[in-house]
Structures are given as structure tokens and as C-alpha cells.
Amino acid sequence: MTVEGIGNRTHGYHEIQSRLAKFNGTQCGYCTPGWVMNMYSIYESNNKKLNSTQIENSFAGNLCRCTGYRPIADAFKTFAKDADERLLHKLADLEDLAILKPCGVKCNKKCPHKKKDESVLLGKLNYSNQETKETISEDDWCFLEKGNNKMIVIDCGTNKWFKAYTLVDVFKAIGRCSDYKFIAGNTGQGVFHVTNYPRTVIDIFNVAELKGHSIDVNLILGAGMPLSEMMELFLKLSNENADFSYLKGFHEHMDLVAHVPVRNIGTIGGNLYMKYTTNDFQSDLFLLFESVGATLTIAEAPNKMKSVTMLEFLKINMKNKIIVNIMLPPLSSCCSFKSYKIMPRSQ
Q1: pTM for the full model?
Q2: 256: number of CA atoms within 13 Å, CB side?
Q3: 147-161: per-residue pLDDT in tens?
Q4: Nearest-5° angle of CA 255, CA 217, CA 168?
Q5: How far apart are CA 267 and CA 288, in angstroms?
Q6: In this structure, is the dihedral angle defined by the CA atoms of residues 338, 344, 345 and 347, taken in order, positive or negative?
Q7: Does domain 3-140 have CATH number 1.10.150.120?
Q8: DSSP assignment, residue 16?
Q9: Distance from C-alpha of 162 to C-alpha of 155, rounded to nearest angstrom
């Protein structure tokens, strides 16, 4: 997905791009693609139902040296359900007034973004076969997510890449190499930059056993759960289940950790494993879990699991093993949780 994919001068611009321009939020334009793609991500992932606070809290990782941020923030806040009327009044559609054309080139037909029944949707990586004139959609050519969940192996001779979908796949891949690296969101690359990867990389982002959550007595979180999904769950459970009311404090603390694009793909297990490989890594997640006596489930084989405490986890040998889930205990209402985030500046 690229900024040109969601809207361009030929097929018409996405509304996010248009509003940013109308509010004079582009100026030099160097940072604009990042702002647009971040807004597009949160807009779509929340089913286009956002409030102003969510929008304002979602751009800690975007920098602009020209605008002072106000026109960018104003443009994006017009998408909020509680948008200020003052901002909405600025949204007079110049295109409908025939002052400006929506596209930068001469169109032979009506612009796709103006047609309700258009099959080519902006935001999808669609293209046209020039010989048959047939529209080929992303769903037709993207094979990674469309398969029957059979493990994918790409062998480049000296290097191999595995796409695993089950724990059985993971241990099969491990068994076929002596040196490997697990990859999920791979956001750790921004913390500890890896230049020499092992010859085998195992993608575990879609491993079914590492996803989702359940509650027996404890809250069990899949190690492959993205941090943003974890935070949403914490907020929901803290309001619905008194035994897990302390999770609201977890949510507030994690809201100061990283930023939205990182939290969208960075996983619980990945964060904890960075703490394992580099004990000096300041993992807020590790400290939060340790504060309530959480435990980890480690798989030594597809059907062989072991439960360890957070501190025990730092000392065990994780060779040929993988974190499956994290178990958070319920706490009595007489317990109170409070944490403080020490950081150079507040995001």
C-alpha cells in the first residue's frame, strides 16, 4: 500500500489527501505521504469512526518542520465524529463549484472516486491489463494471505524464508536449519539494527496459536497479538470486568510507548523477546507484566508447553523454543495499580 495507491492524479485523490491540501497542510510536501498513510491506516482500521482525541493521539511518530502542525491536525480532525463546526465550515467543496478539477489530467470518463458503483476502489493495489482491459485486483495476485494456510517456503540457495501458519509449521522450519530468526512485526529493527541476518528467517506473524485471547481465571494473551490490539482489549476489559480493572492503568502507560504504526504491527512476544536477548532493553511491557505476577507459556514442541515467570524467562535457553502466550492474573478490587513512565519527553 502506497500513498499513490490510495489516490493519485489519474484516478482522483483520496479524501484524506484532498482535505490536507485544502487546509494548507502540505507546504514542502516532504512529510505528507507519512501523514496521509498514517491517517488512512487509523481511519480504515476504525471503520471510519474516529473522535478528535483519537486523531490527535495518533501522530507522535510524524514530524513536520513547515506547518507547525495546526493545519494538518485541523484537516484530519474534520474526519472525527465530534469535529468542530468551525472546521467543517472550511470544507466547501471547490470541485463541485467547478473551480478546480479533481484530477490533474484530462479524463476520458468520470473520475472513479466520484462514481458510487466503481469497481476499482482507491486504496487497493488494483491495475488494468492493457491487452484485455480487465481490471486485476489485489485479491487476484496477492498470494501470501489467500492460500490454504499451507506453509510457504522461499529458497534462495544460501538463504531461506518461511511463512508459518501453525506451531507445527514453526517447528518444522526450525528443524530444517541450525541458525534462524523469528520475524513478526520486526519493529525491533528500529531499536537494535540488525545488518547480518541469519540464513533462515521464519515469519510467525500469522501463526494461529499465537493470536487472540481467552479468559479462564487468568487473561491469556496470544504472543503474536499486536500491541494496539492488546491496548484496545485492556481498555475494554477494564470497563467490563472488575477483576481486570487494573488494565486501564496498563493502557494508559502503553499509550506513552512507541507510536501507532509501530504498535499496529509490533507484537507482545516480540517486545518480550527483545528483553530476553538484550536484558538492558527498557521494556515497559515486561515491567507491567512482572508487576502483577504474569507468567509466560513457552513451547518446546507443538504439544509440549512450559510455564515460566517473567524473571525465569530471562534465564532459560530459548533455542528451538517460542513464546506462545502470556497469562495475566485477576486482581482483587482492594488492589490498586499505578505506574509512571520515565522518558525524555511526553509524546
Answers
A1: 0.79
A2: 14
A3: 568 999 999 999 999
A4: 80
A5: 15
A6: negative
A7: yes
A8: H
A9: 9
